Amino acid sequence: MQRLKTRPQFQAVLAGTIVAKTPHFVLHRNALAAKAVTSHSGKQVDAPVLFREQDMWVGAMVPKRWAKSAVTRNAIKRQIYTVSAEFSHLYPQAAFVVRLRSSFSRTEFVSAVSDLLKQAVRTEVQALMQAGVLAP
Questions:
Q1: Which one-letter DSSP state was computed for residue 16?
Q2: Least buried of 28, 48, 76, 129, by fewest C-beta within 10 Å?
């Protein structure tokens, strides 16, 4: 399993399809194939290769809008990458982004990072990844 690192990689995957949703997360997928792009002069040119290896690529997007504390954002990302690694053998060679789309309740999860929050995130990401495996 490889991790997405550059902005163009994330943008390419987000331009792909949405595979699965849960109340807090969305799973995006895009194929790894390089596509020919038409330049301004009308010629077909190869796009730069964003994914050098044929493998499962995973990225995590946890915006400040939905997770204010850096500690919380990092804890959520750690859970996403850990669960993704557990499911990597079930997924095809493609690029995926797990994106946080709403915040976790601050009344329910008072601490910036707690075992309860980590468990809630882990359970929901597992459900998301399971739904992604079943998606066409």
A1: S
A2: 48
